[in-house]
Amino acid sequence: MSIGKAFFITVEGIDGSGKSTQIEKMREYFEQKGNQVYVTREPGGTTISERIREILLDTESAEMEPLTELFLFLASRTQHTFEVIKPKLKRGIMVISDRYADSSIAFQGEGRSLEKGLVDYLNKIATGGLTPDLTILLDIEPEVAMRRVKEKKGVIPFPQLDRMEQEQLEFHNKVRKAYLEWAKKNPLRIRLVSSRGSPQETWDKIKKELDRLVYTNIKESGKIGN
Q: What is the DSSP letter of 77?
């Protein structure tokens, strides 16, 4: 039986945290319950946003200014939100996004040393105030995550890694720190899940969060008693 509510769920974390694997499991989880699910990503998700993604991740964009990077992410996010996410939700289709607004707090706010209050303010404009129903933050040590990325893409030739992946370990440590701090400020929405173990161990933790979200929605809708 369909859950009824079209949830907007985002998955955050540093590169190599295992987002893609878990997102597929999340898709299966909701589809098995009879729901339509649309999986998307940031930067990207629309024709325009994917073109912006190419610029952002291109290793030849090494000289990009932090504010330029932020505004490009925001431009991509605006198009993504209004062209894809909001219309899908309005039609009753669940949306699961590989990253969303929280990523700019971590990557551009902390990683690029921009003022987080400004990033948060601009995010609200770019998204039209849209906030995910649930955000799964996959947490892992950057050393382990970067090793996973390099094993997956191969270290030779090194340019197989995109511009963000090629950042130094210090950068990824700053991003992780920002994610953890932001999660503490938004504990009801952002649920911290360690992805240090096996994919199945990580999924077992995520499933508990999804079960909690679904149960809460059913209870609030009055389909079950108190």
A: H
Do residues 79 and 46 touch, judged by C-beta distance below 8 A? yes
The CA distance from 187 to 58, in Å, is 34
Q: How confident is the model at residue 217 (pLDDT cuts 50, 70, 90)?
A: confident
Specify the number of domains making up the chain.
1
CA nearest neighbour of 135 among 191, 205, 77: 191
- CA–CA gap between residue 130 and residue 110 (Å, rounded): 22
**Model pLDDT, residue 11:** 98
Length of the chain: 226
What CA–CA distance (Å, rounded) separates 9 from 95? 6
CATH of the domain at 59: 3.40.50.300
205: Cβ contacts below 8 Å, ≥ 6 apart: 193, 194
Which residues neighbour 44 within 8 Å (Cβ) at sequence distance 6 or greater? 50, 52, 53, 76, 80
Domain that holds residue 201: 8-220
